[in-house]
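Quick one:
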Amino acid sequence: MKSVAAIFAAVLLGLLSFSAALAQQEGILPACGGAEQPACTICNLFQLIDNLVRIVIVGLVPAGAGLVIAIAGFKFLVNQDNADVMEKSKKIIFMVIIGLLLIYGSYAIVGAIFSGMGYYDSMNPLEFNNLSCD
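Output:
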């Protein structure tokens, strides 16, 4: 089990370093505070947080969940003769699916609440966090 945790940590670290490089490339960092740029405001801080949440929800969560499901599925297939390991593998897969439902369900519920409050004009409840600091 320790080797699985070490592999998971290495992959997660790789994803985080990829996300940091992507942040500089794709303009995830707000354009403020530099030469010939406006000063940073609190809105830019919220824009940065919004961008980081998007990286986690769109990039890291599915990759991590897929990795954990793949490892648990592999353990399930390899240990067909060990009922205890098979049961643990099924429980891990079930918990990952529940976690995904909680993460994306809560994201959709917050979007629906903001939409009902008239916070934004879009009919898509997943677009509630489009921030603009113009």
